[in-house]
Design a protein that fits this description.
- The chain has one domain: TIM Barrel (Alpha-Beta Barrel), CATH 3.20.20.
- The mean pLDDT is 92.
- By secondary structure, it is of the alpha/beta class.
- An 8-stranded parallel beta barrel has the order 1-2-3-4-5-6-7-8, surrounded by 7 helices.
- It contains 10 helices and 8 strands.
- It is globular.
Length: 217
């Protein structure tokens, strides 16, 4: 486990929306980072490989400017190409061991564990730096996602020794509940990037989840 890096998985964990226009995406991300987002995950399910590379390179520059981790969703080769800080793996995205072999020991590897505590224990045993659970609420991005419970999150907080990320339908109205149940970071897409004022919304999230005291494992 990369102790120095994994301590940076905390607070508002912003996940990019599907945006084809790189300039538009950068503008939105910059506002989120100015508002207090502490982690950025690049996720784009609609762009082709050329656009994804262009956007990931540009986001690498912006996140370096703000000194926050850039995590690439699902794509090891892209993470390697842009010298990202890590990769996030879903259930069908390969193993932690394979990702570590490609990225090396200094990078972050996150794993989606959905609503399965056993999967989280396995991921940590294999060297994952953080694990994610969800969906905790109805999600417009993944409307058919499995549901995770607050009880699961509290159990994970007691048993899992790496940062916990909560995802799925998180809003300003429900984020404090997840923090109180044990989440170290809250992954947000729609409620952040769909807001009329992204910077102000990011600042509200950052204030509500108290980023200064997040890493408490």
């Amino acid at each position: 486990m990369n102790l120095k890096q994994c301590g940076r998985i905390s607070g508002l964990y912003a996940i990019t929306p599907d945006e084809q226009d790189t300039a538009q995406l950068l503008g939105k991300v910059r506002l989120a980072l100015q508002g207090g987002a502490q982690v950025l995950q690049y996720r784009n399910k609609v762009a082709d490989s050329k656009v994804r590379l262009e956007q990931a390179r540009a986001l690498r520059e912006v996140t370096s400017e703000f000194d926050i981790p850039l995590i690439i969703n699902d794509d090891l080769s892209l993470a390697l190409s842009v010298a990202a800080d890590g990769v996030h793996l879903g259930g069908a995205d390969g193993s932690v061991a394979d990702a570590r072999a490609v990225l090396g020991g200094g990078k972050l590897i996150g794993v989606s564990c959905y609503n399965r505590i056993a999967l989280a224990h396995e991921a940590v045993s294999l060297g994952a730096d953080y694990v994610a659970f969800g969906s905790f609420f109805n999600s417009t991005v993944k409307p058919g996602a499995v549901t995770a419970t607050f009880e699961l999150l509290r159990q994970a907080h007691d048993e899992i020794t790496v940062p916990l990320v909560a995802i799925g339908g998180i809003t300003l109205q429900n984020c404090v509940q997840l923090r109180e149940a044990g989440a170290n970071a809250l992954a947000v897409i729609s409620a952040l990037f769909g807001a009329n004022d992204i910077q102000h919304t990011a600042r509200q999230f950052a204030t509500l989840i108290n980023v200064t005291n997040f890493f408490d494992h």
